[in-house]
Amino acid sequence: MAIDELDAALLGLLAAEPRIGVLETSRRLGVARGTAQARLDKLQRGGVIRNLAPTVDPAGLGYPVTAFVSLEIAQHQGRSAVIIHLGSIPEVIEAHTITGQADLLVRLVARDNTDLQRVIDEVVGDRSVLRAATVISLKTEIEFRTTPLVRAAVAAPSARSDHRSTENRLR
């Protein structure tokens, strides 16, 4: 979805102050309340804003250890059963199908290294998991972020239109 400067400003404001209301947002952006609400709705409908839920830090819940586990799974059985299994483990907070030697990349959290071993044992407990390789995160150097990406999306609209022009010429 293409965004403009107003969308980027709205996203930046919401990122900086997630509890800000629509009225205050409109005041700070210098637009009508209806405009701010319409832009917010458009960004939600377009999938740019997935949700307005709070960002929960697992460390704040007592899970300060983060690890990434690459899983190779039995190809003849497919991913579905493994995904269901992983979804049943509360400490598994993310899983991605990936390219390369492994099939899945799983991010999980634990209370400490002993607990991490328990969680890994639970992850590899599915009989479709053939091999696992684990790396423990020592420190998060760059937190999950999207603000630079939002700025880049606004700064590069010509690249998108150039791409569309090339696609149209190829048709």
The assigned structural class equals: alpha+beta
* H and E string: HHHEHEEHEHH
DSSP strand tally: 4
**CATH secondary-structure class of the largest domain:** Alpha Beta
CATH architecture of the largest domain: 2-Layer Sandwich
The total domain count is 2
Q: What strand order characterises the main sheet? A: 2-3-1-4
The proportion of residues forming helix, as a percent range, comes to 40-55%
Low-confidence runs of at least 5 consecutive residues: 165-171
Question: Which helices and strands occur, and which strands form pairs?
Answer:
Blueprint: H1 5-16, H2 22-29, H3 33-45, E1 65-73, H4 80-87, E2 92-97, E3 104-110, H5 113-123, E4 129-137, H6 147-155, H7 157-170
Antiparallel strand pairs: 1-3, 1-4, 2-3
Helix pairs in contact: 1-6, 2-3
